[in-house]
Amino acid sequence: MKPQKQVYFIKGCQIILDEPLRNFANYLGDGKNVIITDENVLRFYGNLLSGYPIITIGSGEREKTLNTAKKIYQEFLKLGLDRSSFVIGVGGGIVCDITGFAASTFMRGIRFGFVPTTLLAQADASIGGKNGVNLNGFKNIVGTFTQPEFVFMDLEVLKTLPKRERINGMSEIVKYSLIGSFPMFDFIEKNWRDLLLLKRETVRKIIIDSIRIKSRIVEIDEKEGGERRKLNFGHTFGHAIEKLYRIPHGKSVSIGMVLASRISVARGMLSENDASRIETLLHNLGLPTRIPKYVSKLMEVVKNDKKRKGDSIHFVLLEEIGKSKITEISYKELEEYINDLC
Ligand SMILES: NC(=O)c1ccc[n+]([C@@H]2O[C@H](COP(=O)([O-])OP(=O)(O)OC[C@H]3O[C@@H](n4cnc5c(N)ncnc54)[C@H](O)[C@@H]3O)[C@@H](O)[C@H]2O)c1
């Protein structure tokens, strides 16, 4: 049976599920249109994107820089883009982040939309209007909060994702269940094998669950003054691990979530049983759970985190699976927990 197209709205952004990539032209504007994608997505799906100028970036986190944004601005100038132009990013989280950043800063902002093509981008990165690039090793340190006009997803494109990218995408999905929905966690726990095989209905359900949880949070707090910080669960140490060990984002966040869960137990909030369930699920999904050595280095990076506020940090802990809490923890206390855990 053909899946029913499903539509959600977050802060005016239309999110459309089950729209075939070949229909992308229906979403373009009347003015000049340009596509931004990366070399891999172009190789797989370039034939479906023909007829419009395409700006191709390389793949990988190292592309998400001001330098790449500059190259994109220069292409925009060459193509003669103006305020009536439309930019559409087709790719994973890197393409979405850089497209959103370039479009929302060029000429103080031109229109843009996303077609996310990785699991991580469909469940998370394309949603919510955060667009950022890295600078001097700091993740997403330069960026904007600007909503795309639309995000449309074709689940079929996930079939060409390499296994490591499927696994990488699982951690943000688990994160959504941990911060916002025990039934979602329970579902993933029961269906992790189907999820890994990307069985259509299973993936569809967990993408919808992730979008619902993210939209609930973004609707309350678009610019991360409070509630949205919950989306950083696992990311304080995750970003530090990503930077130090050059482990991909999803895998780093997985270890970051284990650390945050363990700290939640140490603070008497989360039960030992829940923490073990979390680790088992991450492990089943092929994600790393082992806490790295050299914690002093990890703490150094965390102390330079962009969310730093004096001698303490906003840190997201769990009260139970599906229920998170933003707390302010001093670096000293965090360091003590980390030393005990490692
Ligand atoms: N803005 C946000 O709210 C937000 C949220 C979470 C993560 N992120 C960011 O997302 C980025 C990670 O995104 P990602 O994991 O999608 O990585 P990615 O964009 O690097 O994509 C992973 C790899 O898959 C390839 N690829 C993409 N689609 C494919 C397809 N359909 N078939 C085959 N190969 C395909 C890409 O070329 C790349 O090599 C990080 O920079 C992270 O900071 C942003």
Task: Explain what this protein looks like in three dimensions.
This protein folds into 2 domains: 6-160, Rossmann fold; 163-341, Dehydroquinate synthase-like, alpha domain. It has 12 helices and 12 strands. It has helices spanning 39-45, 66-79, 93-105, 119-125, 163-180, 182-196, 200-220, 235-245, 249-266, 272-284, 295-303, 331-341; strands spanning 6-10, 13-17, 33-38, 54-57, 86-91, 111-116, 130-135, 138-145, 150-153, 308-309, 312-320, 323-330. The strands form 4 sheets. The protein has a 4-stranded parallel beta sheet. Strands 1-2-9 form a 3-stranded mixed beta sheet, with helices on one face. Strands 10-11-12 form a 3-stranded antiparallel beta sheet. Helix 4 packs parallel to helix 5 (163-180), helix 5 (163-180) runs parallel beside helix 9 (249-266) and helix 8 (235-245) crosses helix 9 (249-266). The longest helix has 21 residues, at 200-220. The radius of gyration is 20 Å and the shape is globular. It starts with 5 loop residues before the first strand and ends with a helix. The structure holds nicotinamide-adenine-dinucleotide. Nicotinamide-adenine-dinucleotide (NAD) is lined by residues 38, 40-41, 44, 59-61, 64, 91-95, 97, 117-118, 120-121, 124-125, 128, 130, 140, 157, 160-161, 165, 168, 172, 249.
